[in-house]
Design brief:
By secondary structure, the chain is an alpha+beta fold. It has one domain: Gcn5-related N-acetyltransferase (GNAT) (Aminopeptidase, 3-Layer(aba) Sandwich), CATH 3.40.630. The protein is built from six helices and seven strands, in the order αβααβββαβαββα. Strand 3 and strand 4 form a beta hairpin. Helix 1 crosses helix 4. The chain is globular and about 35 Å long.
Length: 167
């Protein structure tokens, strides 16, 4: 077991209800330059099959990160996942991805998808380590103000091939 695995094992993961959308909105504001609004998150979480999770590190009351994903038939999609800057590289992202994979597997999903910015090497490395493989590209998907748009790499993970345990 490496240091990252030990760190992610001590991370607690809990569901976020639609009435707690402000938690996710606050995290979005801390993590991303163009955050989603509390109202849009709340509306999203009201849809059947949409799940939000918060991650907390031991001894910390404030959430360290979140994941929002959608379950549909035998597939799932991570809509957004983020870790606050002080909690990066401490197993939080790995714990969140693992919880999403386990939940999707428990709901009978065979495959899970996500999009990641081509220039987000830390996230791409995490997803690759968790069993994701490139399966497509969306040119110019991420707009960042006046800077040139960044391509999104579509990644997918075959849950049966990864041997993910259901939660």
């Amino acid at each position: 077991m490496n240091a990252r695995d030990r760190n992610s094992a001590s991370i607690s993961i809990s569901p976020i209800a639609p009435v707690e959308a402000k938690i996710v909105a606050n995290l979005f504001g801390e993590i991303f330059p163009e955050p989603w609004s509390e109202t849009s998150i709340q509306q999203l979480l009201k849809h059947d099959g949409t799940v939000a999770l918060a991650a907390a590190r031991p001894g910390n009351a404030a959430p360290a990160g979140f994941a929002i994903f959608r379950l549909a038939a035998d597939e799932a999609e991570i809509l957004s996942l983020g870790v606050t800057p002080p909690n990066r590289r401490r197993g939080v992202g790995q714990a969140l991805v693992g919880a999403v994979l386990a939940s999707a597997s428990a709901h009978g999903c065979a495959r899970i998808f996500l999009e990641v910015a081509e220039d987000n090497l830390a996230a791409r490395n995490l997803y690759q380590c968790m069993g994701y493989q490139p399966s497509g590209l969306r040119s110019g998907y991420y707009r960042r103000g006046r800077r040139p748009a960044i391509d999104a790499i579509i990644l997918s993970c075959d849950l049966e091939a990864t041997g993910v345990d259901s939660i």
